[in-house]
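In this section we walk through a basic example: taking a raw amino acid sequence and producing a predicted 3D structure, encoded as discrete structure tokens. The instruction is simple. Fold the sequence below.
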Amino acid sequence: MDTHIPIYPQADDLVVLINSLDDVVGIASVGILYKFGENLGAKYADKVAMIKKENDERFQLMLSNLKSSAWFMDVIVKENDDANEPGTLVCVKDLFEEKADRAHCDFFRGFLKGAATEIYGQGLYCEQLKNRADCKEATSVFLLTEM
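The resulting token sequence is shown next.
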């Protein structure tokens, strides 16, 4: 079975959408982009769920497919070492959403939440963190935690 599942819309198209939403609705675009990302992530993860693998393997496969679709250059997934913030770190290098005219990556944060929630079958929360020493190469860092 082919495990490459292309993702649409493409990264460059999403940057245009993000900038357009920011221009038209301003700060309200944060919630719109997060919810759109969450719904698209859940829908995409539903396709990945058809592949008979363990949840962690499916999550990694999804990230690999996003990388091959030019959403980012590289990604590392690892457990957070900080006992005050238990969860999973997703450290991304050169995320497409960083090219948009905004400070945060609300679409991708929602996408990760929706996809991870669908894959793992439990409610998760996704927070974007400031860059961290334990994710040296990353340009964007996200923390997935149980709700």
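Looking at the output, two observations stand out. The chain has one domain: 11-146. The longest helix spans residues 29-48. In the next section we compare this with other chains.
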